[in-house]
Amino acid sequence: MLKNLCLLPVIALLFTYSQALCQTGNSPFTSQGIGDIVDLGLTHNQGMGGTGISNGSFWFLNNINPALLPYNSFTTFSAGFVGENKTLENAETSEKNGSGNLGYLVTAFPIKPGRLTTSVGLMPYSNVGYESESLVNIPNAPNGEQALRVVEGSGGFNQFFWSNGYAINKRFFVGLKAAYIFGNIKKDESFVLPTVSNFTSGFNQRLSTSDFIFTGGIAYNKDSIFNNRIQFKAGLTYDFGSKLNAKNFSRLELRTADIPIDGDTLNRNDAGSLSIPHAIGVGFSLNNGFKWTVALDVKYQPWSDYRNFAGGNDDLGDQVRIGFGGEFTPDPSSVTSYLKRITYRVGLAYENTPYQIVGPDGSFTQVNDFGINLGWTLPISRVSNLDFALQYGTRGNVDDTLIQEQYLNFYFGVTINDQPFKKRKYY
After folding, report:
1. For an engineered disulfide with 185, which of 28, 155, 283, 390 has Cβ 3.0 to 4.6 Å away?
2. What does pTM read for this prediction?
3. Residues 6+ positions from 3 with CB-CB distance below 8 Å
């Protein structure tokens, strides 16, 4: 069993093309910066508002705070799928779109059960996906002719990571994660002239990166407070700021039927960098064994310090995310009722995203995001589970940010745990 389990992530990685991770529906906001930064939480975390900085679990991997890895004493493989249905709306029209992609592949195994656990995995780091059309004026054009401008962006960055968590004692934990960031973001811009409809002029750009980002974590656990049944937990994560090595390719093209027939390369994989700002997160939680957990997370990242390949900021602001959620299992050890062994989750998430809209007077309006989360876990064996989560939310509004996104995200995950070690350690 152990050998087969260890082969599962290897086989999955070999047959998973990295671009399958970087797919998203149409989101105009992702034209700024490097797109949407992907939440590190696995499916069970999403059901609780994305919380996980402090709340480790015996049954699940913690992919948010590496310090909490020793809580899991299993050899574990976890995979997840993300589906999205979105409605975009402005003052004049609305449109619907959807997408689905692989969310994550993560495996972990204890080096020393209850003391040291290591984990490796693959998941998206950022997602980019947008498409827009507009009419632009043509300088010196007769009769005030306009050109149709079409802008498309796609891709994103992935991360292959290695995390380690160490329990100093029953109360204090430390962890470190090293993530290799790779992938590319593509932008295509074309202009269609009404008098020469058979030809279009275009601009093609590809930004790629290949470098490392590091995250540290600490966690604290107090076994009993109040009536000696409630555990108090706290955690902290710190993402070190990084200058990612990057390359930029850009080209001007003349096209017919979207096929380039002539062009001029402006940048041929010129070397540069992307400055990713640091981030700090804190979390607190209370739990009563395996029966219930309540958690609160806050994370801050100053994206105003971000610098793109050209040294600009892309009008990004500082990001603050607050997640709150809980889970409840009626009777985790029930042998007579399957329904009582199902874990139910609910959560809320509020975020000041880094995206900002520049108004006519030059002022900035930050785009806010609010979501409501639901989730549940179905046990499929004594130690393995199927996980589900739903998130409904809105981002932006028509009055302040000109565009509003309403989204319904669906998360599905599977957690396969190998047989536990004989001596279980509870924290």
Report:
1. 155
2. 0.89
3. none
